[in-house]
Design brief:
homodimer, alpha/beta, 434 Repressor (Amino-terminal Domain), Rossmann fold, 3 domains, 6-stranded parallel beta sheet, 4-stranded parallel beta sheet, 11 helices, 12 strands, 16% strand, DNA-binding
Amino acid sequence: MSVKQSRIKRVTQSDVAAMAGVSTAVVSAVISPKPGKTIRVGEEAEKRVRAAMETLGYAPDVVAQSLAGGKRNIIGVFTYEAIFPSDSENFFYPFLLGIERGAMKLGQDLLLFTSSSLEKGPRSIFPGGANRMGVADGAILLGEEPDKRELKRLYDTGFPFVTIGRRDTDKAELNWVAADYTAAVADVVKRCAALGHRKLKFVGATQVREQNIDRERGFMDRQAENLTLSVERLETDDIDGAWLRRCLDDGNTVVLTETFKHAVALERQVAAMSGSVPQTISIVALASPLTRPADVERWTRISVPREEMGEVAVRNLIAQIRSPENTPIKTTLPCGFVPGSTLQAI
Amino acid sequence: MSVKQSRIKRVTQSDVAAMAGVSTAVVSAVISPKPGKTIRVGEEAEKRVRAAMETLGYAPDVVAQSLAGGKRNIIGVFTYEAIFPSDSENFFYPFLLGIERGAMKLGQDLLLFTSSSLEKGPRSIFPGGANRMGVADGAILLGEEPDKRELKRLYDTGFPFVTIGRRDTDKAELNWVAADYTAAVADVVKRCAALGHRKLKFVGATQVREQNIDRERGFMDRQAENLTLSVERLETDDIDGAWLRRCLDDGNTVVLTETFKHAVALERQVAAMSGSVPQTISIVALASPLTRPADVERWTRISVPREEMGEVAVRNLIAQIRSPENTPIKTTLPCGFVPGSTLQAI
DNA sequence: TCTTTTTGATTATACGCTTAATCAAGGTCA
DNA sequence: TGACCTTGATTAAGCGTATAATCAAAAAGA
C-alpha cells in the first residue's frame, strides 16, 4: 500500500473568510473590486479581510479564478521559438524587454507558455489539441507563426490576444501592433531621391507576409516623383554576378533590401567584381538584423521600435481585456532612419 | 445599456458524454488513462467516446483539469532585478535559458513576477505585504536578495521554492542549486601549485555571502601542500599601487580574485607600474563576469554551469512540489576551469 | 446453486473562485 | 406611518474536470 501523496494545503478564500468573520463572496469582492458592483463591502469588513489575508499569507488561485471567469492580472506570452533566445543579440529580445516594462507598469505578471513545446520543431498554440492559454487573461503572440489557421482558431475561442506584427486574416479582425514599414520605406525612397538617385531597385524576400507587403507598398508609394522603381523577390543565392551585372546595366544606383541577408549577399557580389559599396552601388537595409552582426553600424538602414512595440502590445491587450466589446486595436509605430555609410549621394 | 459580451460556448466533456451515451467520468477516463484504474472503460464505449470527441472537436480545458487535479503546472520565477536584463550578455541570462529548457521538458509554464516591482529599487517578495507567488505551484528565486528575512518568511509560509545559489539560514532548511565554488577554487590552487607557484593570494569581495565563504574554503583547503596562502577582502579601489607593491614584495606570484572587477583593477595597477600580466604576476578570476567584457577569453578563470543550474533548479523544484515531505534538495554542480593567458608557470 | 470476483459503468463531490439573486436592517420621504 | 431606497452583507449556482465511492450485471469458483 503506497503512502498517499499529501496535498499541499492551500490557503483559500474560505480560510480568509472564516478568520475575518465574513462570507467568501466578500473576500472575493475585496480582491477584485469591480465597477459593476453586485457585491458591496463595508470599510470595517474590508479592513478585517485584508488583515486576515495578510496573516494567512493568502494569494488567490489563478486557476480557480480562470475557471470562474475572473481576472487574474496575468498576461501570457507565446513565442513560436524559445522565449529566451540563446543568441542574446536576438531580434526578438527587445520586444520582451518592452513587454516586461509594460507589464510592470500595469501591475501584470507574465506567463510564458513554455509547456506548449513539442519535442522538436516550432511550438503550437494547441499542443495535442489543448490550449494552456486560458490561464492568463490574454496573450501576446510573438514571432512568425508557421500555420496561420492557428490564429484563426484562437480567435474563434474568443480569447483576447495581440500579435506583434500586422496580421491579416479572413473573417477575423485581429489586434496587432506593428512597425510602420510603409512609411519608413517611403521615407527611404524620398531620401534616396533627395540624394540624386533616380533608378531604385527593391529586393525582397520570396516569403511574402504582411510586413513584406507593407514595405513594397511604401516603395511604390513614391512612383510619382519621376523615379524608376523596380521590385524583385528572390533568394539570397539568386543574387549572383550575373544578377548584379544586370542590375547595374539597368542603371540602378541604389538597392533597398528587405533583409540584412540580402544586403550582405549583395555586397559580397559587389566585392567579387572588385567594386565597393556605396561607390559601385548604394544599399539600404529595410529591417533590423535578426542577429546583430559585428558591423551593423556601418549599414544605412531603418530601425524598428521593438521595445516600444512590446510595451504598447501590453497596453492594447489590457484595453482589449477590459472592454472586449471594443473593436480590435491596430497600432502602427514609426520606424527610424539610421544613417550609415552604405548610401551615398550620386 | 451596453451589449453583454456573449460567451463563447465551449465543447465540454458532458457534450461528448451525451453524444456517446455515457457519463462524463467515462470521457474523463478516456482522455487520461491512469494506471491507478478507479474507472474502467469498455472497448465499445471508448470507440463511441472517441468518435464523439472527433465530431464535436472536443479539447479538454486545461484550466479545469488543473483545478480538479490540484496541480497548476506553473512555476514562478522571481528575480530581484528586471527579469529580462537589458544587457543581454548579462550574468543571469543563462540561468533563464536553463530554466526555460527545464520547464519545457517537464511541461511547466513559467510565471514571471513582474508585477511585484515597486517604483524603483529592488523587488520584494511581499510587495505591500501580499505575496503573489501562491499563484504558482512553486518558485525559483534568482539573484542576490537584499533582505534575507524575506527568505525566512517565505519559507515559513510552506511555499515550495528553490534558490539559485547556496543559502544558509537559521531554522530554515532551504532548497538550492549552487556551483561548487569550493572544489573549483581548490582545483585552481592545485593547478597553480603544479605550475610552480608557492605563494598565492586570494583577493575577495568585502560583501561576504555563502558563495564567498565557499571560495575561501576552497582556497584554504590546500594549505597542506607547503604553499603559502593569504586572504584579503577589499574594495576594488583599495587595489592601488602601494597595495600591489606590498603584494609583490611579499613574494606572491599569483592572485586569485573573487570577481572580475577585482581582476581588472589589479591588472590596471600592474600596467601602471609598467608591468604586465602574467609576466609581473599571474591572475585567475574565480567567477564568471557579470557583464561580458570584450576580452573575457583572455582571462584564466573558472566557469559557472549556469544553464545547467537553471535546468536542475526546475527539476528539484518539481520534485519538491510532488513530495513535500522529502528533505530539501541541495545540489552542487561542478565548475569548469577555463585556461587563458593571465596565468603562467613560474 | 450460491457465493465471490471481475468488468464496466454511474453518481456525487471536490477543486477555489465569481456573481446573480436575495435579504435584513436602517434611513428617506411623502 | 407606511412605501421605498440604500447599504452591507449572505446564499447558492455555476465554471469543466478528476476521482472516490458505489453499483449492477456477468463471469468464475465452490
